[in-house]
Amino acid sequence: MSEDYNDNKTIQAQSSETISGEGGAGVTSDTDYVRPAEVADQDLYHGHSFITKWVFCQDAKVIGVQYFLLATFTGIIGLILSWLMRLQLGFPELAGFMTAEHYYQFVTMHGMIMVVYFLTALFLGGFGNYLIPLMVGARDMVFPYVNMVSFWMFFVAVGVLLASFFVPGGPTGSGWTLYPPQAILEGTPGSGMGIILMCVSLILFVAGFTMGGLNYLITVLQARTRGMTLMRMPLTVWGIFTATVLAMLAFPALLVSALMMSLDKLLGTSFFMPTILKAGEVLEYGGGTPILFQHLFWFFGHPEVYIVALPAFGIISDLISVHSRKNIFGYRMMVWAIVIIGALSFFVWAHHMYVSGMHPWFGFFFATTTLIIAVPTAMKVYNWILTLWRGNIRLNVVMLWCLGFIVTFVNGGITGIFLGNVTVDVPLSDTYFVIAHFHMVMGIAPLMVIMGAVYHWFPLVTGRMLSEKLGKWHFWFTFLGAYSIYFPMHYLGFIGVPRRYFEMYDSPYVTSAVGMNEFISTAAFIVGAAQFILIYNIVTSLKIGKPAGKNPWQANSLEWLTPTVPPEHGNWGDKLPVVHRWPYDFSVPGAKEDFITQTTPPSEVAETEVEKT
Amino acid sequence: MHAGIIFLLVIVGSVLFHIFTPWYWTDIASNWGAMDDTITLTFWVGGGVFVAVCLFMVYCVFKFSYKENRKAEYKPEDKKLERILTWATTLGVAALLAPGLIVWNQYINVPKNAINIDVMAWQWGWQYRLPGEDGKLGSTKVENINDNNPFGIILEDPNGKDDVLIQSDVIHLKNNRPVKILLRSVDVLHNWYVPQFRAKMDAVPGVVTYYWFEPNKVGEYEVLCAEYCGVGHYAMRGRVFVKNEQDYENWLYEQETFSDLIAKQEEIELSQVKLAKK
Predict the structure, then answer these.
(1) Considering only residues 402 to 431 of chain A, which have any Cβ-Cβ distance to chain B shorter than 8 Å?
(2) Where would you tag: which of A77, A543, B126, B219 has the fewest CB atoms within 10 A of its CB?
(3) For chain B, how far is it from start to end, CA to CA, in angstroms?
(4) What strand order describes the sheet that includes B164-166?
(5) Options 2.60.40.420, 3.40.50.300, 3.30.1640.10, 1.10.645.10; CATH of B115-271
(6) What is the mean pLDDT of residues A269-275?
(7) Do B228 and A584 touch (CB under 8 A)?
(8) What SS3 state is found at A597?
(9) Over the stretch A173-200, which tens digit does the pLDDT of each residue have?
(10) Mean pLDDT to the nearest integer, A306-332
(11) Shortest CA distance to A138 belongs to which of A146, A125, A152, A128?
(12) For position A129, what pLDDT does the model report?
């Protein structure tokens, strides 16, 4: 590596004309030319005390790990809530302590935690913070202080959310969609303090997230190292970048809907409240419309699906490419597909509302846009499997998670075509088919990516490998278990079992569902427990894991090319890296090894037949 | 290798599960067979893609798993292949979308001979109102709802006087006659859903929403609320009886109209006044 840096030094010091004037050496150096830097190196704040280094820290890598750990912590709470729900659904005789109020509170908190405080925070706050500066060759995020505040806002948001478990009435039980009027009326558990704290927590989350999001965007746009053109960025960065753009545009809709609902609750405004008769009395509301809330919520809610999915798409592309020892197939199409999916995701929100009572003509428009989005998404799937094709596939734990992702994502994507196609949605909406669909496509599939990414980047973050053996157990329990939870669950939806039912009683057509529910619940307990294999693996590997060394996977992208592993504050030592190619030059004909790192200048691999740089 | 075999078993298992599953949709009891057909079509196309993609993946795992001396192919792009795949996918998607839109068009256009039914929802229950001999439902207002006027009918509206009021969660429908379900709610969102009829729509306070279907199988069905409406959501059930014309007319004849209700109340008031005088 040090040789590269020396090479770059000469280029930095001299203009290209003077190099070519030096005679023989000029020919090769000329091909290695990279535009000189336009701005001075970033000045960083270096923490000195424990608190500035590890608590109120401005290093994006530490902030990334903080986001990761806090999101995982809330995720475990979400997991425990799902166990309680499954206990009620599968074995109600064992869940005697649980009332309908509890059940709905658990449903709501599980949903909100998993979507916002776990998946979004983990992908963007966790992976985004850790990987963006490293992958684009920056020393840190462009606004490190704001970045730190972003995490602590998230911390407070989680605190407020969890505090709602301890207020009178408990947390809100209005479903994670928080539909008014029920969310703020008696008759729904937690309609007092619970819903207010939920709104406050969401507002804090959005505010904090905006600070982080601006950082991700400007870092990608402004702080890329020399030679790192947009079309040389790893797809991980493309995915996180586009997802952040979506988040910046979508989260304000969530913010205002939370704000307006708080006003309806606290000040008696009627944004979402029509004239309502409750217990024989007409309430002091009037003129509002609940459907407005649904539009606002899903204008956030649908892009939110892609805020989770796009980083997952990006990360999985990189993992598949590295572990197949093959370039990602159709890189440019992959980039454009990410961008197009992101743009289209703002025109499909009302497919969540086909039976909401909105004007029925909307159905035509939103069914069409929704199915159009299937095309770029399908292209991505094709390109993943075409990357495997004629690759040299390492069947390690990371690759297993990738394969698991493809199966679950395609499965969930196909059922999305059912629900997006307005007519098919009519019988299936609000049933267990919907639950199965979105858990498969935005629960399990992104989870597979997170797990793959953990096994892939753990060596970078800690300098030690995770145990492959434990990893395989973890994978098979999780993949087979999760698949057997959600694949059969679709069929409950066909029967017509509605979602959010505390109890089915003895409806004639659902008695056959009882056995299925017991099976699903058992699988859910096992899958949840299997996650502790990962925690055990992480804890033990931190101490006794095999030392990773530099670039253990023989990857090309910059994050593996730091002078020290794990990377230190400032990432790059004295000199920023200079990029000469895209990150997917695997198995290039003529090359000695099966990978060429992004910092390798063309003169070093002159004999290879590189097609794209 | 073991991994490839397990993935293969998962895919084969999924297909077998689909073929032999005892859990599948209930026998349809309405005209919406077209919905079932679109689902079946989507199953064939979508299921085909799922199986093809996954089998290709498993094939790659078997065929191209790591060998020290093999080098992967280096081919960043294949424009022709990408173009073919794009167009084939677009075609497949269009083939699914077209029938979907056609059936949706039927779903939102109600036949002229449909009987209007006012379905009124609250936390947590249902009640129903049928038009009287004039075939029209009287207009309503939430503020008008009280013990004497349980549906909040506007008294000045002449259409409302002969409306048939069914203050019960049991409703009867005439076999082979389309019904237009007019949904309203006095408090929060609800959704009047009978799985065997396939159709559903939310009841939204402040507006009247609708959908229609034609029951075509005599029998008894359970009504479920399909939009979360608070802690009693799961218990918000009702019953529908689909009856032959004669049985239906007999049942309808026994029901009370709004004028009957008013008359009865006047009688009660009168007797109370008399009692008071005594």
Answers:
(1) 403, 406-407, 410-411, 414-415, 417-418, 421-424, 426-431
(2) A543
(3) 97
(4) B209-213, B179-185, B115-122, B125-130, B164-166, B256-257
(5) 2.60.40.420
(6) 94
(7) no
(8) coil
(9) 999 999 999 999 999 999 999 999 999 9
(10) 95
(11) A128
(12) 95
Q: Taking a C-beta distance cutoff of 8 angstroms, is the pair A427, B198 a contact?
A: yes
Would you call B101 and A324 a contact, using CB atoms and an 8 Å cutoff?
Answer: no
Cβ contacts below 8 Å, chain A against chain B, sum to 339
The pLDDT value recorded for residue A20 is 37
Domains defined along chain A, listed by start: 59-273+284-605 (1.20.210.10)
Taking the C-alpha atoms of residue B259 and residue B246, their distance in angstroms, rounded to an integer, is 24
Q: How far apart are CA A567 and CA A183, in angstroms?
A: 47
CB A326 within 8 A of CB B73: yes
Within an 8 Å CB–CB cutoff, is residue A231 touching chain B? no
Is the pLDDT at B186 greater than 70? The verdict is yes
Contact across the interface for A426 and B226, Cβ inside 8 Å: no
Q: B93–A375: do the CB atoms touch at under 8 Å?
A: yes
The answer to whether the bond into A181 is cis (omega within 30° of 0) is: yes
Q: What is the pLDDT of residues A450-478, one digit of tens each?
A: 999 999 999 999 999 999 999 999 999 99
Element housing A5 (H / E): helix A2-13
Q: Check CB contact under 8 Å for B97 and A332.
A: no
Cα dihedral A598/A604/A606/A607 (nearest 10)? -100
The domain segmentation of chain B, as residue ranges, is: 2-64+77-108, 115-271
Q: Which residues of B touch A400 (CB under 8 A)?
A: 3
SS3 letters across A23-35: CCCHHHHHHCCCC
Q: What share of chain B is helix, strand, coil (3-state, %, to 5)?
A: 45, 25, 35
Query: How far apart are the C-alpha atoms of A81 and A289, rounded to whole Å?
Result: 32
Q: List beta partners, residue A586.
A: A595
Closest CA to A177 of A310, A78, A291, A309: A291
Answer yes or no: do A330 and B76 touch at CB < 8 A. yes
- Angle formed at CA A393 by CA A391 and CA A395, multiple of 5 degrees: 170
Task: For residues A316-344, give the mean pLDDT.
Answer: 94
Q: Could you tell me how many residues make up chain A?
A: 613
Contact between B142 and A277 using a beta-carbon 8 Å cutoff: yes
* Ramachandran angles phi, psi of A464, nearest 5°: -130, 150
Contact B100 A500 (CB under 8 A): no
Mutate to test the interface with B, among A182, A432, A435, A480 (most CBs of B within 10 A): A182
Whether B191 and A488 lie within 8 Å, measured CB to CB: no
DSSP letter, residue A466: P
The residue written with tokens 């746009």 in the block is A221
For an interface test with B, the pick among A177, A195, A393 (most B C-beta atoms closer than 10 Å) comes out as A393
Neighbours of A21 (CB within 10 A): 10
Single-letter residue type at B136: K
By C-alpha distance, which of A259, A71, A275 is closest to A157? A71
Cβ pair A138, A129 in contact under 8 A? no
Could you please report the per-residue DSSP string of B205-227?
A: BTS-EEEEE-B-S-EEEEEEE-S
Task: Kindly give the residue spans of alpha helices, DSSP state H, lying in A350-467.
Answer: 362-388, 397-420, 422-428, 432-439, 445-462
Q: What's the gap in Å between the CA of B260 and the closest CA on chain A?
A: 23
Alpha-carbon distance of A503 to A110, in angstroms, equals: 18
Query: If you write DSSP's letter for every residue of A91-145 in order, what string do you get?
Result: -GGG-TT--HHHHHHHHHHHHHIIIIIIIIIIIIIIIIHHHHHHHHT-SS-S-HH
Of B7, B195, B206, the CB nearest to A496: B195
**pTM (two decimals):** 0.92
